[in-house]
Amino acid sequence: MEPSWEETPTQILETPPTGSLESRPTGPAYLPPTISPRPPAPTDVRVDVGRWLSEGWTLFTRQWPTFALATLVAGFLSLVTLTITTGPFLLGLYFMAFQVMRGEKVQLGDLFKGFEQFGLAFLAWIIEVFIHLSLGGLTEHTPLMGLVSLAFSPLAFALFAFVYPLILDRKMDIAAALNEAWRIVVSRQWVMFWVLGMVFMLILTAGLLGCGVGVCITAPWIICAAAAAYRDIFSVRSWPPEPLFPPSEKWGSR
Fold this sequence. Notes:
The protein is built from eight helices and no strands. With 254 residues, it is mostly helical. The model is unreliable at 30-36, 238-244 and 247-254 (pLDDT under 50).
């Protein structure tokens, strides 16, 4: 007769003592890796309008047929879509400018790269149009309001010359891009940024003359010049160590 379970002997497994926890050596406490944010661009910048325009023209002329055709396609499709696609096409033109600056060959299909960030590009375009229309409406009132419009319109043009590449390169949302671009444009060199915006406006206006044919040249030229300015101020992290046009001396160093 087998014994019942009460009578079955139990075996207790015991482990030999390994010493108190206090006596065990411990390593350093685990700290999660920290991701350091990219430092903001310096506000003490030197605006070199002439050099940026010169480099922008060089970039444009390196592959001007593709730039001109892309601008023509972007303008036509923007009109067909009631400017809904203008923002993404601007991102595409900036993408092409960066590609040429890296020494790469661009093609017409690169124009549509901006559609990967369609929402942000469209929102940036809507805000830009609203600002320019609001400033333009001031000229219909007193001459003083016209002077206010003249004072702020070039700054707004320079502002959005950096907003689009910030969205494209740093993948910023619209609020962060506007804040970063505004911080640069209204720095101590705001007068030179005003000059930069005014020059861009005059070049674009000149391109609109003659049934707007010249805009196929002036618009990509402006974008290439803005890309050169963006490179010097913000730097583009995806560029190779030796880009086609290396940045000038560090800002702040004299």
